[in-house]
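Notebook, bench 3.
Goal today: get a predicted structure for M20 family metallo-hydrolase from Candidatus Fimisoma avicola so we can plan the truncation constructs. The sequence was checked against the plasmid map this morning, with no discrepancies at the termini. Length recorded as 402 residues. Pasting the sequence as submitted so the record is complete.
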Amino acid sequence: MRDMQWLLEAIEEAGRTAVKEDGTYWRASYTKEDKAVVELLQGYMESMGMETFFDAVGNLHGVIRGSEDDTVMTGSHRDTVRNGGKYDGILGVLCGIRAAGSLYEELGRPRRSLEVVAMVEEESSRFTASDYIGSCNIAGIMPESAFSLTDDHGITIQEAAVAAGYQGAPSDSKRDDIKHFVEMHIEQGGVLESENKQIGIIRSIVGQWGGTISFEGKQNHAGTTPMALRRDPVPVMAAFIRDLFDWVNLRACDMVLTIGKISVSPGSPNVIPQKVSFTYDARSSDLELGQATVEKIYALRDRYDGDIKVEVIPAWSDKPIMLDMDGVKELEEIVQELNLSYKVMDSGAGHDSQNMAKSYPTNMIFVPSVDGISHNVREYTKPEDLAAGLTVLKAYLKKLCW
């Protein structure tokens, strides 16, 4: 009861740090909103007996030192998307703080050090394509090119980090003391709620393949150019999209496809477009299926390329990431002992865990999102589901550290 009262109040207090002067909701990395939440989280950590410090890129760490050199880390990211909500990311940080503090109070010094981290720049909402620099830094997989990425005002990540008081340079190598990473997160989808499950135990994070497909024709007058004499790229794009979705829908149990943006140039009602394009985002936990989808895209390009020039411009290709299966089994045992309903599932969204899993045994715990809503001010998780998630996290950290 005491844990939940603290957690609910902390969620509201942390949420207030993301409200900007114009009333919008956005906690971007290395901003005054970020500074406000860092000060809040650091205070929480220190009040529960943790030693706090920052790494080079500005991740906030709070640690309870154990009797051994090994470390178990938990936490998530502290930034939000533009007009996002107050649960995504920060919930995992707050639950980690409360679980660690409660365990320390109840059991004393742990065998393994227990460390809570509040990571920067997971969402790429300020620096486009920054790709989880907080977790990349810890895992030792940071590309140096990331620090030259800029925000809308031309400020680089390096410049923003230094201005915020951090070193701003990536670590040279991964930390070798971390033996396990555990991330609690909202589901950000509707599967758990629709199946009436309290807990999601994640076995993998899906692979993602994305980019842009463009179609170039000939700009001309909309009224004086007969249909037979047009080089209009729109019908070709429409046919391409139809064929791609037909192919994906036959495999919809194992993958999803999103066309999130369609662009038309010059974009005038009385002009046949010169060029149109759309973005694609394909996701699957099946590597072969993801690769087959990319092959299908190129096959469709070859089919439709002709009078209309078709070009595929890939932007990212990330393989599925398997999480620690021993941890999945241990979490199942814990959830069963607690008599909670659960589902072993894949994550359809990217998370810091996908980077941590490249260097350390990693597990994720999901709690339901009401109506499947996230990246929205309306995102919400019921208190009883928060309590279930916190209880599971606490039990697993106890098993790993004491």
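The chain has a mean pLDDT of 95. The first helix runs from residue 2 to 16.
Flagging this for group meeting.
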